[in-house]
Amino acid sequence: MKHRLTRLAALALLTAGTCVTAAAQQQGVTDTEIVLGDILPLTGPPALLGVAHNLGVKAAIAEVNAAGGVNGRKLRLISEDDGYVPSRTIQGVRKLINSDKVFALTSVSGTAQAQAAMPLIQQAGLPAMAPITTYEGLYKPTIKNVFAVGYDMSNAVDELVSRMADRYPGKKWALISQDDDYGENVRDGFERAVKAKKLQVVSTQIYKKGQTDFSSEILKVKQAGAEVLMAGGVLGENVTMVKELERINHKIPVGVTYVSRVPASAKLMGAAAENVYTVDYVYLESSAQGKTFTDRIGKHLSPEEMARVNRYTYTGYAATRALIDAMGRCGKALTWDCTNAELAKVNNLDTGAMTPIGFTATNHLAAPKLFLLKADPAGATYKAVE
Predict the structure, then answer these.
(1) What 3-state class would DSSP assign to 156?
(2) Distance (Å, rounded) from C-alpha 365 to C-alpha 154?
(3) So what CATH class is 154-280?
(4) Cβ of 101: how many Cβ atoms within 10 Å?
(5) DSSP per-residue letters across 334-356
(6) pLDDT value at position 105?
(7) At CA 49, angle to CA 219 and CA 244, rounded to 5?
(8) Hey, do 33-151+287-366 and 154-280 end up sharing a CATH topology, with the first three levels equal?
(9) pLDDT tens, 236-288?
């Protein structure tokens, strides 16, 4: 009996030792590999954003792998398509965390999608980058494992409207926004600018997400005597509003969020984009920084992929490089806790894709510097105006 107990005790110790070793190996990490995941709209109209963003993530990973990986470990990416549908975002995040066992998320989809998936991400504790949406719930209050790369949408709208008000003083304003969290952020920023600048608002309208006909809303803008419009759509909605203003010959300055700052949007607006403005923190493709960045990622993407590059490629790349920078400083003993802690120390990181980013222990929103842009119909792009 004594010998049997001794053998059982030895077996228990051996089993315990195995469990300790297994626990020490963080999910998604082996001796040779680190598995990353992202959840994005890769199909449907929002794929214009999601695919481009995914290309930035892929370029960053390919670049690091070509240089030997992260402390000797190569990176592998698993991408999930949520089609910009919150329920699919939840399913995709659950798969990436529980089935694919990824170490970290390089990207989380849009505002409503991130909001829906956040409880899962927060409970899991894995490092998660949020470079597409920067809604307030991602960083207020601070979430230990979530890091938003970009500029708070409501603050960006506040900045845009304020700068446009300086360029067009004494004008009457109108606002058209979406009936969801994204639209709420737009309205919040607009209202703060209106209050600070003492603007006269003659028309405010809220449209249903997915709406494609804005003839009624734009007619009301004209009838109200609005001289400047804040178009709070995502992509196609803003294009339609601007084109409708042109159609009824009410060519007034229009502000759009940085979400719309993609070549396809400017191209679709055509000559109607003559007085369209936005603010952004991502370098213009035509800038010296943008050309250098294009050359860099062109070494890792095919010609077909390069044709789909836009500002979201820049955000995907920048956020992934910030994540990799933090992972690298953890050495071989790579863990979620270490990576989260190191991400909170990222300071003035120049990724070459946007103005420098950084976080602190109490601020997980990297708010790069904004600059004002105006659409350039001839070049189907935007140009800095200050």
Answers:
(1) helix
(2) 13
(3) alpha beta
(4) 15
(5) --HHHHHHHHTT--SB--SSBS-
(6) 98
(7) 15
(8) yes
(9) 999 999 999 999 999 999 999 988 888 888 889 999 999 999 999 999 988 99
Task: List, in order, residues 6 or more apart from 166 with CB less than 8 Å away.
Answer: none
Q: Are 371 and 384 in contact (CB under 8 A)?
A: yes
Kindly report whether the global pTM for this prediction surpasses the value 0.85: no
Specify which residues 278 forms β-bridges with: 373
How many whole angstroms from its chain centre is CA 351? Answer: 15
- Tracing tokens 């003035």 back to the chain, one arrives at 348
State how far the Cα of 114 lies from the Cα of 133, in Å rounded to an integer.
8
Instruction: Report how far residue 348's alpha carbon sits from residue 357's, in angstroms, rounded to the nearest whole number.
Output: 5
Hey, which CATH number is domain 33-151+287-366, 2.160.20.10, 3.40.640.10, 1.10.240.10, 3.40.50.2300?
3.40.50.2300
Distance CA 362, CA 290 (A): 31
The mean pLDDT value for 39-68 works out to 95
> Which amino acid, 322?
A
Q: What is the pLDDT of residues 5-15, one digit of tens each?
A: 334 333 333 33
HSE of 113 in the Cβ direction (CA atoms, 13 Å)?
25
- pLDDT tens per residue across span 275-334: 999 999 999 988 999 999 999 999 999 999 999 999 899 999 999 999 999 999 999 999
| Gap between the Cα atoms of 70 and 36, Å rounded | 12
Q: Give the residue extent of every domain in the chain.
A: 33-151+287-366, 154-280
Instruction: Tell me the residue type at 244.
Output: E
Other C-beta atoms lying within 10 Å of the C-beta of residue 104: 29
Instruction: Round to whole Å and give the CA distance between 139 and 143.
Output: 6
Q: Which residue has the higher pLDDT, 111 or 38?
A: 38
Lowest mean pLDDT among 32-36, 110-114, 293-297: 110-114
Tallying the residues shown for the chain, one arrives at: 386
